[in-house]
Design a protein that fits this description.
With 291 residues, the chain is α/β, with parallel strands linked by helices. It has a single domain, classed as TIM Barrel. 47% of the residues lie in helices and 12% in strands. The protein has twelve helices and eight strands. The protein has an eight-stranded parallel beta barrel with strand order 1-2-3-4-5-6-7-8, surrounded by five helices. Helix 6 runs parallel beside helix 7 and helix 9 packs antiparallel against helix 10. The longest helix is centred in the C-terminal third of the chain and has 17 residues.
Length: 291
């Protein structure tokens, strides 16, 4: 049975001053994330700027990070073309990753039957554990609970990163799927409320900065100490919100650079945070005594 643990960080991809991938910084960051309690890492997800990475950069990242950390590496390989996603998945498997994160196809807006056929085809062609990724705010495509239920019956589809922000939909998914199918919150701000309806853990962005606190919040909730968990949630509420004031990963990269974890800028079509956004991020870090 696949178990990637409860706290997974969707890791940024560090760049140097010329916006080339900085592999040494990526290794260093991955090690730091392990030290603060991450149980797995997603590499080349949205936060890792997958759309602007070259195929060879992705493969080298998988290999370098896998060689240097002892927790599972989950590769973000999803595209809006089934054949291309299968190709990416096969290459990621050959590079040694432990699992795949596959987003619902974006832009072409498939129906629910199309979504089922897409993921079923990939699962049959690539023998690795798969985490589905539903993020309708980015894809203009919402995978409904009944579709997740059908897909959860396929052996190597083992988890879902659910970023709809819809607590009713999240609860319905948990209700419909087997206990060994893990539903993860894809929104940091929704983690604690989602755990109340059975979400297992989180695929997080904010954990780059407040991973220890998030881990404590998860553990307090599991232990039944809801008040302590709620106290941490409220403490982190502002940073959960403000690390998404512009498109991810612009704010989280800015925050990491501020605390001297050098990850560089972002590739076009994204641009670096502006003065006002930097002030908001800096204020949050100061409030939490991180800066």
């Amino acid at each position: 049975m696949t178990n990637w643990g409860r706290m997974i960080t969707a890791m940024v991809t560090p760049f140097d001053e010329n916006l080339n991938v900085n592999y040494e910084s990526a290794i260093s960051l991955a090690k730091k994330l392990v030290e603060i309690g991450n149980t797995a890492l997603v590499i080349t997800g949205t936060t890792g700027e997958a759309p602007t990475l070259k195929a060879e950069e992705k493969i080298k990242l998988y290999k370098k990070i896998k060689e240097n950390v002892n927790i599972p590496i989950i590769a973000g390989v999803g595209t809006n073309a089934t054949d291309e996603t299968i190709k990416n998945a096969i290459e990621a498997k050959e590079a040694g990753v432990d699992g795949l994160l596959i987003v619902t196809p974006y832009y072409n807006k498939p129906c629910q039957n199309s979504l089922y056929a897409h993921f079923k085809e990939i699962a049959e062609k690539v023998d690795l554990p798969i985490m589905l990724y539903n993020v309708p705010g980015r894809t203009a495509c919402n995978m409904l609970p009944e579709t997740v239920e059908k897909l959860s019956k396929i052996n190597n589809i083992v988890a879902l990163k659910e970023a709809s922000g819809n607590i009713s939909q999240i609860a319905d998914i948990v209700k419909r799927t087997p206990e060994d199918f893990k539903v993860y919150s894809g929104d940091d701000i929704s983690l604690l409320p989602s755990m109340a309806v059975g979400v297992y853990g989180v695929v997080s962005v904010c954990s780059h900065i407040v991973g220890k606190e998030m881990n404590n919040m998860i553990n307090f909730f599991i232990e039944g100490n809801v008040e302590k968990a709620k106290k941490i949630h409220f403490k982190l509420l502002d940073i959960f919100r403000d690390l998404f004031i512009v498109s991810n990963p612009v704010p989280i990269k800015s925050a990491l650079n501020m605390i001297d974890i050098k990850v560089g800028g972002v590739r076009l079509p994204l641009i670096d945070a502006r003065k006002k956004e930097l002030e908001i991020i800096r204020d949050n870090l100061k409030k939490l005594d991180i800066l």
